Amino acid sequence: MEMESKKKKRNLHIPDDIIFNILRRLPPKSLARFKCVCKSWQSFANQHKYHNQKLILFSSNTIQSVDFEADEIKAVDLDIPFKVSNRMLGIASCNGLLCILTEREGFVIWNPLIGRYKRVSNTSEYDKFGFWYDHSTDNYKILRFMGFFDPNSERPLERYSVEIYSQKSNSWQQKEILPWQIFCIIDSLFGVLVNETLYWMIRYINNDEKYIPAVLSFDTLNEKFDVIISLPDNVHVFDLGVFKGHLCLVEHHTAGRFDMWTREVGKNQNWIKFMNLTPFERKSPYHYLEPICSMKEDEILVCERQLLISLPRQRNDEFFLYNPEAKTYKKFHICDTMKHLFNQITYTDSLVSP
Fold first, then answer.
1. Domain that holds residue 4
2. Quick one: which of 199, 197, 198, 201 has its CA closest to 185?
3. What is the DSSP-derived secondary structure letter of residue 34?
4. By three-state DSSP, how is residue 59 classified?
5. Is residue 93 within 8 Å of residue 101, measured between CB atoms?
């Protein structure tokens, strides 16, 4: 009888591959509850990646999440667990973590799915930053630009000092001072992260001492900067983004039309125009379209924004789906979106702790 009992116990063992196959099918909140069962389950949960692309809407005091796979597509206010004494300035995402820059408390790294957060610094004398995951050291990092005027310089221009924060050491380290030719880091607060490289739009002073549009890149693997001066011909007004895992340059034209470019990988690294979005009937000259992300069936989600100079706003920003084949726009209704939207980013759930 005793031998039969031991044999039955041995037969109760379920192979790990079957268990993990079951765990990966669970929704994020259910998987989070099972992290405490054993170390192998905890390790699996922390490394598991979901592919449910969500949209994060951001304002000075509100963060909303939009789940495209929900029965009703609506903007849900996230319960912010940390105190923001004044306002939030910028937001970036990486592997399910949000990196939020606040005006007085500095940076906060937060996983809204599990509710955990970590304050990084208590100063915010900067406004441009980047956020990424260093695979080689299993470490999340933040890069910030500190603007200053060099009294000893022959040119009275603002310079940028670069500092990098390490989550593991919980400390900042000065990296370098950027060359004076990098005159201004413009527009977006956070760097666009594509294939372990961060990108910002800048104004660059070339050899003829002319101010030209350019792109500043930062290779997060070897932590080195580079300046991309070669842009598509006659491109002056543009934004940077990510399209299907590639760096995307969005060129704005008058009358609500814009072109989308991507950069070749390899030696040539030429810019290739891969899409031209047809003119959109704007409600006023103060309205413009901003591409956000690619959706199912290769449609592109775009947001109709309103220039700040046209405040006060009379309504919420509106969203549309652009069909590249039919070259048509159709309204994409998201319920309960905030009125004073600052920015939007894409995000995927994870169980990573900040």
1. 1-45
2. 201
3. G
4. coil
5. no
354 inside domain: no
Is it the case that residue 229 has pLDDT exceeding 70?
yes
SS3 readout for 230-267: CCCCCCCCEEEEEECCEEEEEEECHHHCEEEEEECCCC
From the CB of residue 91, how many other CB atoms can be counted at a distance below 10 Å? 24
In a domain, 103, yes or no: yes
Residues 91 and 17 occupy one common structural domain = no
Q: 15 preceded by cis ω (within 30°)?
A: no
Per the prediction, the chain carries an average pLDDT of 82
Mean pLDDT of the region 29-53: 71
Neighbours of 55 (CB within 10 A): 22
pLDDT digits 0-9 by tens, 76-101: 999 999 888 778 888 999 989 999 99
Pairing of strands 158-166, 171-177: antiparallel
Instruction: Answer yes or no: is pLDDT of 2 > 60.
Output: no
Are 327 and 185 part of one and the same domain?
Answer: yes
- Identify which of 205, 217, 212, 267 has the alpha carbon closest to the alpha carbon of residue 238: 212
| Domain-embedded: residue 352 | no
260 and 316, same structural domain? yes
Return the pLDDT at 215: 93
CATH code of the domain containing 298: 2.120.10.80
pTM: 0.85
153 and 192, same structural domain? yes
Residues 161 and 304 in one domain: yes
Residue with token string 């994060």: 56
**Edge-to-edge order in the sheet of strand 75-77:** 75-77, 63-67, 54-58, 343-347
Residue 327 DSSP class: T
Closest residue by Cα to residue 64 from 334, 350, 299 = 334
| Among 220, 198, 35, CA closest to 137 | 220
Per-residue pLDDT, 310: 45
Lowest mean pLDDT among 220-229, 262-271, 330-339: 262-271
Torsion angle in degrees (nearest 10) through CA of 20, 21, 22, 25: 110
Per-residue pLDDT of 152-181, as tens digits, reads: 766 667 789 999 999 999 999 999 999 988
